[in-house]
Amino acid sequence: MGKIKSCFDKMTIRKSMLYTFLVTVSCICVLSAFTIFAANKAQQKLLSLRSFSISMGDVQKNRTADSWKLTLGENTIQWEPLSQTQNIAYFGCYVALIVLPILYVVFGISTASRLYYRLKLKEPIKELQKGIVNIQNNDLDFEISRRSDDELGELCGSMEKMRSELRDKNKRLWELLEQRKLLNASVAHDLRTPITVLNGYLDYLDRYIPQGKLTEQDIMDTVEAMRQAAGRLERYVDCVQGIEKLEDIELQCTMESTDSLIGDMKKNIGLLRTGKTIHFEHHLASEQIYMDKQLFFRILENLLQNAVRYARQTIDIILSEDQFFIILCVKDDGEGFSPSGMEKAVSLFYSEDKEKEHFGIGLSVCQLICQRMGGCLALKNNVNGGACITAKIKK
After folding, report:
1. Please, are residues 16 and 120 in contact by the beta-carbon 8 Å criterion?
2. N or C: where does the chain have the smaller number of CB atoms within 10 Å of the terminal CB?
3. How far is CA 231 from the centre of its chain?
4. How would you label 129-147 residue by residue, b for 16+ Cβ within 10 Å and e otherwise?
């Protein structure tokens, strides 16, 4: 049975059905022929058991040849009828000639159908039914196994691919919703600080200006502080709008010359005035790369800004590739990530120096762009100190 099933699994449905039909018809024909032959033999055997009588006809002697001539009439030989048991058996053979081939057909078709369903259809249909039920129940944490190479096996494979894509899309949607919730919570929290500062200055002015206790310089200093708080608030709102636009951006990938890409990277790096040493090296074998160049340079700029902020003296930039990804690695010789920073660095608006002009969105933007380009962002600390951030984008 195992060998038959293994053979069936390698056949297409059409081919396996044809073989099943041919084997079934062959078995029915062989059994029917054997039945007909046996029934005829049985009837002949029954007939041979009958007794008969011969009535004497006209007998004449041939005197010349010294012989006798016997002339028999039409009713000279009389066959004895079959007994009741023999008669039943004889006509039973006729019934067998008709009924048994019909039973062979019915039994053969039913048996072949059950066997074919068990060997070819049962397991794939069971897998598909299980998959449909789980998908209807929004349960995508399962796997549809492909047990054959036929059309149903391909259908199981396609459904497994659909399930995997649905799961990935649901996961991305869930992550997007979580990011949106974090964004809303962060906006609500971080906007409260500049608003509180503005309200405090307004209360200060409202209280002391009518009393004449503030000099013109005090008022101007307060107005300048309010302007700075309003400017920070405005920049914060611009950052939020930039992230929302980035989530809806469409990739515009083109074939880029490797030499041109490296030249543009060197030019952009050379324009930085940081007072720190930047080393750039590349290891690209491909002459052309298919990518969205604008988004790639946005990753580079954000990683560089992050490295410049925390590096002491040296920044290393390494551009390489493997079979599937373009890899951009930016290292610095700073203090590296703290345990909490390693865990939360890519979270929106996370920063350990929020009192400065840094809002903590650079790495979040890089991670979002990498994911949109089919890659990922990885963080780690160097062995000798400092941070190492690796961005991968799909070729």
Report:
1. yes
2. N
3. 47
4. eebeeebeeeebeeebebe
